[in-house]
Amino acid sequence: MENIINNCESKMEKTVSALDNEYKSLRTGRASAALFNNISVEYYGAQTPLSQVGSISVPEARIVVIQPWDKSILPAIEKAIMKSDLGLTPNNDGKLIRINFPSLTSDRRKDLAKQAKQIAEKSKVSIRNIRREAMDEIKALEKKSDISEDDQKASDARIQKLTDNFVIQIGEIAIAKEKEIMEI
Q1: Hey, what long-range contacts does 60-64 have (CB within 8 A, 24 or more apart)?
Q2: Which of 29, 76, 92, 131 is a good FRET partner for 176, with 20 to 30 A between their CA atoms?
């Protein structure tokens, strides 16, 4: 029974971690190297993460610089960034790629804030599904008479408390992200 609760908590922590990672790749008005985590480049016949073919730095608030270790890959990096859904235009100077982050329009900010809310809501649904699975496992133990009804109710209460805490945590993360997006 304790194992089920610990497993449930671990899954919920992973859900929050996944939300954090997804939010890192959500574009805000500021430049961020994390935006390029999901971009792969064709390199020697294989799709390779951008971070493995060069260094990504943020020298200023609205500029990202990508400096590949092999200059011959510059066109492939440029192409990969153009194909991504980031809506950014890379500038290739033959040695490195500079990407200027234009200010977001108010409509785009609202769209991104809405998208952030949807991502948070999916995470909350995942948390609730994890809760349901754990409670089902504990009910099954009670039906097999492996645990008492009192133990089952106590476990359900602990799982519900975990769920409430993680849903609140997701809500706080979402509010912070929305505030970051709406900053001018």
Answers
A1: 60/31, 61/30, 61/31, 62/29, 62/30, 62/31, 62/100, 62/101, 62/102, 62/103, 63/31, 63/98, 63/99, 63/100, 63/101, 64/31, 64/32, 64/33, 64/35, 64/36, 64/98, 64/99, 64/101
A2: 131
pTM: 0.73
Quick one: how far is CA 21 from the chain centroid? 3
CB 153: neighbour CB atoms within 10 A?
Answer: 12
Name the helix (H) or strand (E) containing 110.
helix 106-143
In this predicted structure, what is the pLDDT of residue 29? 67
- Is the CB of residue 91 less than 8 Å from the CB of residue 98? yes
Question: CA–CA separation, 79 vs 60, rounded Å?
Answer: 23
| Alpha-carbon span 177 to 181, nearest angstrom | 6
Nearest to 174 by CA among 6, 17, 23: 23
Sign of CA dihedral 61, 67, 68, 73: positive
